[in-house]
């Protein structure tokens, strides 16, 4: 009886150990599977975060480049406008200083002579000057060249003109503008391509230096 009880206890003990070992092995296996799943999920999340970060970095870089390009373009436009305004101001004042009464008379003489050579008749040529210049020019001009034209050309004052003059021949729809502003605009028009080339050349030089 005692022997049978001992065998029973040994068997129970053995079965308990085997069951515990089996459960422990299952627990370990489940833990490993869970750990593997957690690691895989973590790796996938890390990969997604990394891809998102790389995409954001590319977008930020592209946007930064576009922003810099736009800023550079705006700077060039601002510089170009500033240079154009400065050029126009310089040209305007320089032309104004150059258009002295003597210069005006010489210009008007040449233009009037050219019109006479073309056969334009007296009274068809109207020259408009500023009131100040008209007073200085008309007497000398008309006295010296009245004989060249049968009864002289007409020279009038125009408050809208600061310096220079305008010529019109209504019957032939001819109009020429030699005012200070028109001459300055013409000078700027011819110089703008050269200034634009200089500005772009300087900009390219600065980019290469950076």
Overview of the structural elements:
The protein has 210 residues and is α+β, with helices and mostly antiparallel strands. It contains four helices and four strands; from the N terminus they run H-H-E-H-E-E-E-H. Strands 2-1-3-4 form a four-stranded mixed sheet. Strand 1, helix 3 and strand 2 form a beta-alpha-beta unit. Helix 1 packs antiparallel against helix 4 and helix 2 packs across helix 3. The chain is rod-shaped and about 160 Å long.
Tell me the layout of helices and strands:
Blueprint: H1 2-98, H2 101-117, E1 126-129, H3 131-145, E2 154-157, E3 164-169, E4 174-179, H4 180-209
Parallel strand pairs: 1-2
Antiparallel strand pairs: 1-3, 3-4
Helix pairs in contact: 1-4, 2-3
Listing every helix as H and every strand as E from the N terminus to the C terminus, the arrangement reads HHEHEEEH
Largest sheet: 4 strands, mixed
Query: What does the overall shape look like?
Result: rod-shaped
Contiguous runs where pLDDT drops below 50 for at least 5 residues? none
Average pLDDT over all residues? 76
Helix amount, in percent?
over 70%
Strand order in the largest sheet = 2-1-3-4
Short précis:
The chain is 76% helix and 10% strand.
Summarize this structure as a short list of keywords or feature phrases.
about 210 residues, alpha+beta, 4-stranded mixed sheet, rod-shaped
